[in-house]
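To fix ideas, we reproduce below one chain and its tokenised fold.
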Amino acid sequence: MNVNTSLSGMYTAQARLDVAANNIANLGTDGFTRKEVVQADLPEGGTKVADIRNAAQSGNNLEADMVEQIKARNTYMTNLSVFKSNNDMLMGTIIDISA
């Protein structure tokens, strides 16, 4: 597995977390429009942030933003776990080759 696949997932999850946090931080700001992240698949595997746009639903949606933060955190942690596993396998390979 390509390490860039898990890295791209972490970057996208971080963007989703940032946008949801910004939405929550601006709940009481007059004229603020919620944002949402649009993801796109990469041809070589992984994902990217295709766009950050105004949310389809107008007004505040604390519940949706809280759930988005939880999903983004879980996505980030899953991709981090994959990244660490790949790193561990690669280090084992390098050690075996040099032995």
